[in-house]
Amino acid sequence: MLQNSLQQDLAQLRPIRLQELRAAIRPERYQQSITRALLAYFFDALLYLGAIAGALLAPHGWLKLVFGLLAGAAVAFMFVWAHDAAHGALFRSQRLSRWLGTIFMLPSFNMYRLWAFGHNRVHHGFTSLSSVDWIWRPWTPAEYRKSSWPRRLLYRLERTPYACALHYILRVWWPGMLRFRGDGKNRAAFRNDKIITLVFFLGFSAIVWWIGGIWSWISAVLLPFIVFNYFIALFVFLHHTHPDLPFFAEKEDWAPALGQLYCSTIVRCSRISEMLIHNILIHTPHHVDARIPFYHLKGAYADLREQYGQYIHEMRFSFRAVWRIFAQCQLYDYEQHCWLRFRQARSWLATQEQNGLLTRVIDVAPVVRRQGTAQG
């Protein structure tokens, strides 16, 4: 049976419409400031360019790597800014948002329109509904047992703090960017974005190699890409994964208010960290309404907390807390809405088989082909 508190929360939130949640947010939270958006843009750009200059010009290899790590962090900050632009939260002009967002996604080798297509339609449309939105979708014990050992190994690696970047690279970037083609309406635009990204990658790599050879290429191109993927994978994991947060297999059990309010988290950090990452971990108000600019998310969170605070999951960022979430949230029972550790899978399966209640394996592959990508 569901825990009583969770069962009550789901029952109370399921009939609430998304517009009712948005009504709790004050109108001033939607006001756009071109000045604030551009100041953040140029700060991120200067941080990235400075780090790249350091990676290229530093006299020692270890110092090049340090600047490469900083460049990777800057790429993540730039990506978050572009993420807001893709939601139309920063400018009224879609063209301006697209041009600036495309430029800021280039260092991560992500394609702006491809990413926005899946993220806005799939992830925000069906948050934590695992049959559609498969970002950080937990496997059931039955699905884990049925999979081949290489797939089980990959799944286990993804659900660790030290290898979580694999999830974004292999579940999002490769299938949802490089391989995804789109339909006839979007195919030309997606192809153009791929060409732009490829030209940037080849041109940037050639310049970096010419300046400093392979060591500079590793520090200025490869390492920032890897670091970025760790950042974005961890961000999205923390956005919707927590021992108290449910996932859903059936649309009949899910509702927009559950996905956007209840299944999205608030992770508080230091003030400077929240500034650098553009408040991306204050995620609940962003999911309630993605049109809110990043610099108003704290205020929007305060508004939501006044009426719906009991349904919002907030935590303080710490490496211990992150490790605990990875350790507890490994497999999922979609019927009982409870998380399981890997070591609990065998006994859980034995109990289910004994009682004739073995949870079916969830197959989302047909939905993936229809919907496109689903980035977090």
Please provide a written account of the structure.
The chain is mostly helical. It has one domain. It is built from 17 helices and four strands. The chain has helices at 4-13, 18-23, 34-57, 61-86, 94-105, 112-123, 141-146, 149-158, 165-178, 187-240, 256-262, 271-276, 284-288, 297-308, 319-328, 345-355, 365-371; strands at 265-268, 313-316, 331-333, 338-340. The strands form two sheets. Strands 1-2 form a two-stranded parallel ribbon. Residues 364-372 have low confidence and may be disordered.
Task: Please provide a brief summary of the model.
With 376 residues, the chain is mostly helical. It has helices at residues 4-13, 18-23, 34-57, 61-86, 94-105, 112-123, 141-146, 149-158, 165-178, 187-240, 256-262, 271-276, 284-288, 297-308, 319-328, 345-355, 365-371, and strands spanning 265-268, 313-316, 331-333, 338-340.
List keywords for this structure.
376 residues, mainly alpha, two-stranded parallel ribbon, 17 helices, 4 strands, 62% helix
Summarize the SSE layout with pairings.
Blueprint: H1 4-13, H2 18-23, H3 34-57, H4 61-86, H5 94-105, H6 112-123, H7 141-146, H8 149-158, H9 165-178, H10 187-240, H11 256-262, E1 265-268, H12 271-276, H13 284-288, H14 297-308, E2 313-316, H15 319-328, E3 331-333, E4 338-340, H16 345-355, H17 365-371
Parallel strand pairs: 1-2
Antiparallel strand pairs: 3-4
Helix pairs in contact: 3-4, 3-10, 4-5, 4-10, 9-10
